[in-house]
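Deliverable D5.2: sample structural annotation.
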Amino acid sequence: MNNTSPQSPSPLNQGHLLANNEAAAYLGVAPQTLTIWRCVKRYAIPYIKVGSRIRYRREDLDAWLASRTVGTQAGAAA
């Protein structure tokens, strides 16, 4: 018996992945800015490409944001 349903929705359409405009809004930049960063490889933000579709995982965006954080909370309390 086959456990996979041929009608199960694709992860690209389930909301697990963010489209370019959604990822840009999440990061607080214009969609075209995110596109330029990706094309010129300005920042190493992981993305998924399936055909012509570009998608981002929210956890990858969170990790990228964390890597860009300057200073620490401990230093602010001192």
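Annotation notes: The mean pLDDT is 83. Residues 31-40 form the longest helix (10 residues).
The annotation will be released with the project's public dataset once the embargo ends.
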